[in-house]
Every structure is written in structure tokens, then in C-alpha cells.
Design goal:
It is found in: Cell membrane. Keywords: Cell membrane, Membrane, Transmembrane, Transmembrane helix, Transport. Its main location: membrane. One of its GO terms (cellular component) is plasma membrane. The protein is α+β, with helices and mostly antiparallel strands. It has two domains: 243 residues, no CATH class; 58 residues, no CATH class. The chain contains twelve helices and seven strands. Strands 1, 2, 3, 4, 5, 6 and 7 form a seven-stranded antiparallel sheet that branches. A hairpin with a 2-residue loop joins strand 2 and strand 3. Helix 6 packs parallel to helix 9 and helix 9 packs antiparallel against helix 11.
Length: 350
């Protein structure tokens, strides 16, 4: 009961003599809305409005896009008893999870009803909890498309901040998905747990703490449930791969932003260097002729002809050096285009 009340309990499975306790994390996509100075979260299906304060919600949701999307993190607790009773505890989204399950239970053709298996009900809850994370990846793909177009057209530092927020939310999503995958694998391997020896006792005769390695439990996970749990495991693996690719794309896009901005700054510095190199001889001559020498015929005769006789050839030599350096740098490219033009001319003659 302490683990149920504490909403920060990590994902786990505990096996006891008469029941099994499961703790997992549910993540779903939410739409952020602004109300004055506070940000509220509205679920995509518009069914739940979380009324917690921002300070209390920091550990329970993560922003994906500023004032647009976020990830809601909730705890789901389940008890599966040996007398075929399933008890579930949700923070906010119990109706969202149980609604599709009740729809399946109302149909006599579904296996969850025809099998009369409580472990299949546990599998159904885990399946819906995992499926609630699927819209997150779809929203991430949409945001990546918008950010990628903006970065390729006009990269800015603000976009890097948005990518950091997005990558932070994806990291939280990945961590919780991996933990849920471990829980599902534990349930799939429950058949091996049943074949193990009973729990060991210490020197005082009391039983050791229950764990999947030494628990002697009467809770049964059917073979049919294990088959369907393998399908849930496939969904988790797909989510992991998609989330990992999204995190890597965010990192690559962030690197592209900084590389593009750095290249643009380098080009600006290069142009300023060319301008400075062009006017450097003029600056030297201006400083020289601005000195107070006596006698200095050019100054005394109030004529600037001598200045231009020196500055003209110097500027021509400087411009020739700059142009020749650029031609040398573009030489291989010019030769390549020259060969292409020659090949096009021969094609026209043919």
C-alpha cells in the first residue's frame, strides 16, 4: 500500500504468496494551454484537465514543445491475486485505460472475455498503457518536420533551445519505456519462476523478501497471456527504436544548427578580413602622410598627387593578390565546370 500511495515508485513486479503486485508508468500526450501565468495540461481526448500546481507537476510531466505539447507521466498500480481478482489504481487516466477494455469485455467474441483469465485482464491494461505512448512519437515526428524545415531555411539559437526541450522529453520517454519492457519480460518469464524452489529462510526461520528469483507464489500467468505479452513486448521494442532515432535526430539537428551558424560567422569574418586587407595599405599611407615632417614637399605644396601615385599601384597589387588567391582556391571547381561545358558542346555537335 505504501508503493501505491507513493507516486514516485519505480516500475517493478513483486511476487507474494497469495498475490502479485505490479507498478508501471503510463505516459500519454497532452496539449498545453495557457491560463494567466500558469500552464495547464489538457489531454488530447479533452477528457481530463489536471488541476495540480506547476510546482507539484514538475516531476509528473515534461514539455515537448513550448506551449503546445507535453508528456504526462502517471503511475499505474495493479494487484493480481491467487483467487482471480485484479485491482487497479490510477492517478488520473483510469477511464482512458479501462474504457477500451470494457468495450472488449462487452463482446463475447473477444479472447479477454471468452478465456475467463484474470492474467489476460492484466495484459490488456499493460497493452493499453503502452499504446498510450504511441501518439507521442507521432507528435514528435510532426515537430521534427517543422523544426527541420526551419533549421534548413534559417537556423537560430532559439531552435536549439526547442530541440533541447524535445530531447529532454524523449529521454524521459525512453527511460520509462525501457522500465516497462523489463516488467513485461518478467511476466513472460514467470513460467520459469514457478519451476524454482520455494523461498529460502534465514537463521530465525522467517522467509526472505519475495523476488522473482526465490518467490513461491500461487499466482498464475497463463501461456495465452504470455503469448499476448510478447506482442506487447514487440510494441515496446518499436517504441524504443523510434524514440532512440528521434533522440539521435535531435542531436544531429542541434549540431547542424551550431555548424551552420559557425559557418555563417566564419564567412562574415572572412569578408571583413578581405576588406581590412584591401584597405590596410591605404591606412598605412594615410598614417605616413599624416605625420608632421618639415620639410615635406607633398604637404608643403598642398598637393595629394604624390599620395595617389603611391596608393594606386599598391591597391592594384593588393587586389591582384586577393583575386589570384581566390582563383587558385576555385581552380579545381572551375576546371570541373569547364569539362562539363566541353562535354555538353560535344553532345550538341553529335
Amino acid at each position: 500500500m505504501e508503493d501505491v500511495i507513493d507516486t514516485n515508485t519505480p516500475t517493478k513486479v513483486d511476487w507474494y504468496d497469495s498475490h502479485c503486485f505490479l507498478e508501471l508508468t503510463m505516459q500519454k500526450l497532452v496539449r498545453l494551454q495557457r491560463y494567466g501565468e500558469e500552464t495547464s495540461m489538457l489531454a488530447i481526448d479533452a477528457s481530463n484537465l489536471l488541476d495540480e500546481s506547476i510546482r507539484d507537476r514538475r516531476a509528473k510531466w515534461r514539455t515537448l514543445a513550448h506551449r503546445k505539447y507535453g508528456i504526462s507521466v502517471e503511475q499505474v498500480s495493479m494487484f493480481l491475486t491467487s483467487d482471480n481478482i485484479v485491482i487497479t489504481f490510477f492517478e488520473h487516466s483510469g477511464a482512458d485505460v479501462l474504457k477500451p477494455i470494457l468495450t472488449r469485455l462487452n463482446s463475447p467474441q473477444t479472447i479477454i472475455r471468452s478465456s475467463n483469465d484474470p492474467s489476460m485482464l492484466v495484459q490488456a491494461v499493460i497493452d493499453v498503457v503502452v499504446d498510450m505512448s504511441v501518439p507521442i512519437n507521432k507528435a514528435v515526428d510532426e515537430m521534427f518536420g517543422e523544426l527541420e524545415s526551419a533549421v534548413l531555411s534559417n537556423p537560430t539559437i532559439t531552435q536549439s533551445k526547442q530541440l533541447y526541450v524535445l530531447r529532454s522529453g524523449l529521454t524521459l520517454l525512453m527511460d520509462n519505456i525501457i522500465a516497462t519492457g523489463g516488467l513485461v519480460r518478467t511476466l513472460i518469464d514467470h513460467r520459469a519462476v514457478l519451476n524454482m524452489a520455494p523461498s529460502n529462510t534465514d537463521s530465525t526461520g522467517s522467509s526472505a523478501s519475495p523476488s522473482p528469483q526465490n518467490a513461491n507464489t500461487s499466482v498464475h500467468i497463463s501461456a495465452t497471456t504470455q503469448v499476448y505479452l510478447q506482442d506487447v513486448q514487440d510494441h515496446i521494442t518499436a517504441l524504443q527504436n523510434s524514440t532512440h532515432n528521434s533522440i539521435r535526430s535531435a542531436e544531429n539537428l542541434t549540431s547542424l544548427i551550431f555548424n551552420t551558424i559557425a559557418a555563417s560567422q566564419n564567412e562574415s569574418v572572412r569578408q571583413l578580413t578581405l576588406v581590412s586587407s584591401f584597405f590596410l595599405p591605404l591606412t598605412f599611407l594615410t598614417g605616413y602622410f599624416g605625420m608632421n615632417f618639415d620639410p615635406m614637399p607633398v604637404v608643403n605644396e598642398h598637393s595629394d598627387m604624390f599620395f595617389w601615385l603611391i596608393a594606386g599601384p599598391v591597391m592594384l597589387v593588393t587586389a591582384a593578390l586577393l583575386v589570384s588567391a581566390r582563383m587558385i582556391r576555385l581552380g579545381p571547381l572551375s576546371w570541373k565546370w569547364r569539362r562539363r561545358l566541353q562535354s555538353l558542346g560535344r553532345r550538341k555537335q553529335d
